[in-house]
Amino acid sequence: MVDTTNASCVLVREPLPVQGVRLSSGRAGLYKKPRPDLVLLAFGEKSHVAATFTLSATAAAPVLWSRDQLANTSHARALLINAGCANAATGAPGLAAAQTCAAQVGALLDVPSHHVQIGSTGVIGVPLDVAKIASALPALAEALTDDAKAWSAAAAAIMTTDTIPKAVSARVNIDGHDITITGIAKGSGMIAPNMATMLAAIASDAPVAGSILSSLCQRVTQASFNRVTVDGDCSTNDAFWLIATGEAPIAPIDAETDPRLASLEAAIEAIAIHLAQKIARDGEGATKFVRIHVAGAANAQSARKIAKTIAESPLVKTALAASDANWGRVVAAIGRAGVAVNLDKLSIDFGTHAVVRGGLVAASYDEAALSAYLRGENITISIDLGLGAAQDEVWTCDLTHGYIDINGSYRS
Amino acid sequence: MVDTTNASCVLVREPLPVQGVRLSSGRAGLYKKPRPDLVLLAFGEKSHVAATFTLSATAAAPVLWSRDQLANTSHARALLINAGCANAATGAPGLAAAQTCAAQVGALLDVPSHHVQIGSTGVIGVPLDVAKIASALPALAEALTDDAKAWSAAAAAIMTTDTIPKAVSARVNIDGHDITITGIAKGSGMIAPNMATMLAAIASDAPVAGSILSSLCQRVTQASFNRVTVDGDCSTNDAFWLIATGEAPIAPIDAETDPRLASLEAAIEAIAIHLAQKIARDGEGATKFVRIHVAGAANAQSARKIAKTIAESPLVKTALAASDANWGRVVAAIGRAGVAVNLDKLSIDFGTHAVVRGGLVAASYDEAALSAYLRGENITISIDLGLGAAQDEVWTCDLTHGYIDINGSYRS
Questions:
Q1: Portions of chain A given CATH number 3.60.70.12
Q2: Contacting residues of A for B189, CB less than 8 Å apart
Q3: Which of A192, A214, B154, B181: CA 20 to 30 A from A342?
Q4: Does B395 touch chain A (CB under 8 A)?
Q5: Three-state DSSP class for B280?
Q6: Cα separation of A354 and A352, whole Å?
Q7: Is B64 helix (H, G, I), strand (E, B) or coil?
Q8: Which residues of A touch B400 (CB under 8 A)?
Q9: Are residues B161 and B189 in contact, defined by beta-carbon separation less than 8 angstroms?
Q10: Is residue A404 within 8 Å of residue B400, measured between CB atoms?
């Protein structure tokens, strides 16, 4: 299966193996129901790793641990992710638990424990059952493989309320060699990243210097995961890891000015955008994917702010769920975004339907046609503020009864 | 029926007449269903009026009109409020419609049109049908009365998705005379005031100078309507009018240092708090009233910011709807509020139940007891940040299927 969301590279929906990454998944039993909940990734010696983490002031123990280890180095040799327990609001015992997990992975893989990254997702405030993880780890270490199927299994094992696993690959030709990039992500609720999304990892066999990987990781985050918002609720556990194993037989990319960096970045960005949009599409209870594009802004920050305010408005989202052409709620959301706007210059389109021109209902407005459009599964809301040249885009979903059901019964 | 929410005065739930205010309500036909939708209030010659309006950058035409008229004066002689049409995102024609309404009221009451305030609530983006209002106005002008029952009728006529009319009175003795204060309000959804709430008017027969009334209005707004948030969606039409008719036989209150101002302010504030809490209690689809108190903050702004972030978190609100003791979502909301916190110093209580101490689950935590508490209709969440002496409080409700139903079908 092939997707063509990005012109510069072709996305492959069946994940491809990445040389230099071995991985496996299994069940530690953090969930009551019998489902996989633990993923181990091991990276070759030449690997560099960068990451973006949640900006939450109550960041979870695994975030505190992982951020600390990557603060002054781009070296990491493993990443352990568990679902079923966020290990957040667990105090010093929680931090010790993350540390113990890292030590056990380190011992099994013969790498320093501070080269082990940890990611957790699940219920907040519940102690992490380290014994269960310790029992499951040896089998996972034993099962590490570079087989493509392990990526699909990993994407499934990190799911929480996700309804579909999220994995995708791309190939990009650099210096006559096919560079492979594969990414996995999880996220469905509590999605309003300040820095990344719930949990994502994208690995490539490209040789990229650590000094470059970090800013590359930031740029990709901004263009992808930071554009998603399901419910405005930013997680304590958000993390996105970018791994470059360096196994591909091309000369290292070690300067920002290296023209090959742009090709690689475009492909990584395409993967990240694909995963990010999948998260919005799989938002808790979602029936519609909604793209909100704001143009004509004085600056990109204003455009983002307005797009996010619309995307997080419960009134906009409930109207979309009901396919109700109540576009006045979009005007109200624009008005409360904290950005100066001139209503007389405002245009709003839903898909190709002109809705607002010069701040009031467009002459060609046709409610029946708009309602028909809103019954579709893919909605684009385009705003033109008429104030400048800057633009930005945010992705979200509608707010339905499903969201209430999922989040009323999440822990049961 | 008597309430005792405020020690300094007694609230009376059956509204009392206010000398110097005559009012009436009726039907202009802005709603399809046969229900009242138009309220006219007339104030005596000695009246002073102040107001706070929405901070929305897409404020509705009636707000633009009313704000303009009160910009440099405290004189107003009438207030016309309609439900069924917000007259927002209606451009120059919308502003002309508000102006025409003011002119017609002015002509009927023999007062200058710029002494007529206008408030509208209802669907955004729909032109206001001025002809319908013009047809209904003469009968309303004819029916103006100082009868107490007219206040209850007015509270009912300004409702939109409100399930109960909101009206309350208080009496406070100043200089040996009973001063009467009566307030009405409407609001249920799109409630996250930046300045006021949907629509509210509080009138007193006290003689208060215009120069004092304006700051009094601001302080009362901050202590009451600005503490409510149902869904984070701030309206284009928010407005709160404070009217002092000056008919009571006491010397004018014309200095901030006048000790009688404190008594009057306490009573007006009690009325405003009562109305504001009623709005939260009557939030769209709400089954629970939720009080979020944040103490131990470095400053009041931080406390308010954290309280509002918790109050607007869909994940907190859905857990409350389901009576689920998923308190980790409160920790997550605190973390994303954009305020520096020290998790190790954080305490959280639900009612009298200790939940978090020092950033992790309290030793005495009893989930069964907490779940039982959460099944009640009145929930208090108390946060202590352990960082300072400042505190603040916000009122909200839970997020239920009812919210989705109401907002999916609002226009039909």
A1: 2-280
A2: 315
A3: A192
A4: no
A5: helix
A6: 6
A7: helix
A8: 404
A9: yes
A10: yes
pLDDT in tens, chain A (412 residues): 334 344 457 888 889 999 999 999 999 999 988 999 999 999 999 999 999 888 888 889 999 999 999 998 999 999 999 999 999 989 899 999 999 999 999 999 999 999 999 999 988 889 999 999 999 999 999 999 999 999 999 999 998 888 889 899 999 999 999 999 999 988 877 666 655 567 889 999 999 999 999 999 999 998 888 888 777 777 788 888 899 999 999 999 999 999 999 999 999 999 999 888 888 888 888 899 999 999 999 999 999 999 999 998 888 999 999 999 989 889 989 988 989 999 899 999 999 999 999 988 999 999 999 999 999 999 999 999 999 999 999 999 998 888 888 887 766 5
The residue of chain B nearest to residue A95, with distances taken between CA atoms, is B360
A319 touches chain B (CB under 8 A): yes
For residue B121, indicate whether it is catalytic.
no
The ipTM estimated for the assembled molecules is: 0.76
CATH 3.60.70.12 fits A2-280, yes or no: yes
Looking only at the bridges linking them, the beta strands covering A289-297 and B360-361 are unpaired
Pair A12, A180: CB distance under 8 Å? no
* Cβ atoms B54, B195 nearer than 8 A: yes
Class of domain A289-408: alpha beta
Q: Closest Cα partner for A201 from A187, A191, A215?
A: A187
- B-facing residues of A in 31-60 (CB < 8 A) are 54-59
Q: A327 touching B, CB under 8 A?
A: yes
Beta carbons of B58 and A334 less than 8 Å apart: yes
Q: What are B179's two structure tokens?
A: 């001063």
What are the distances in angstroms from CA A270 to CA A1, A12, A172, B15?
16, 11, 11, 62
Could you give the C-alpha distances from B398 to A190, A232, A312, B312, B337, in angstroms and in order?
17, 16, 17, 10, 19
Tokens of A35: 């489902």
Angstrom distance (rounded) from CA B104 to CA B28: 14
CATH 3.10.20.340 segments of chain A: 289-408
Of A340, A320, A342, which Cα lies nearest the Cα of A330? A320
What span, in angstroms and rounded, lies between the C-alpha atoms of B240 and A352? 39
Residue A115 makes CB contacts below 8 A (sequence gap 6+) with A69, A75, A76, A77, A78, A106
Using the Cα atoms of residue B27, residue B32, residue B35 and residue B37 in order, give the sign of their dihedral: negative
Which residue among B90, B197, B221, B396 is the active-site one? B197
CB contact B128 to A (< 8 Å): no
Q: Which residues of A touch B314 (CB under 8 A)?
A: 231-233, 314, 399, 403, 407
Q: Where in chain B is the domain with CATH 3.60.70.12?
A: 2-281
Token couple for B287: 């089954």
A:71-110 residues touching chain B, CB 8 A cutoff: 86, 88-91, 93-94
**Contact across the interface for B324 and A409, Cβ inside 8 Å:** yes
Question: A282 CA to chain B: closest CA distance, Å?
Answer: 17
CB proximity A314 to B under 8 Å: yes
3-state class of B194 per DSSP?
Answer: coil
Which of B313, B343, B344, B374 has the most A C-beta neighbours within 10 Å, making it the best mutation to test the interface with A?
Answer: B343
Q: Chain B 159-188, CB below 8 Å of chain A: which residues?
A: none
- Residue A288 Cα, gap to closest chain B Cα (Å): 14
At position B399, the amino acid (one-letter code) is L
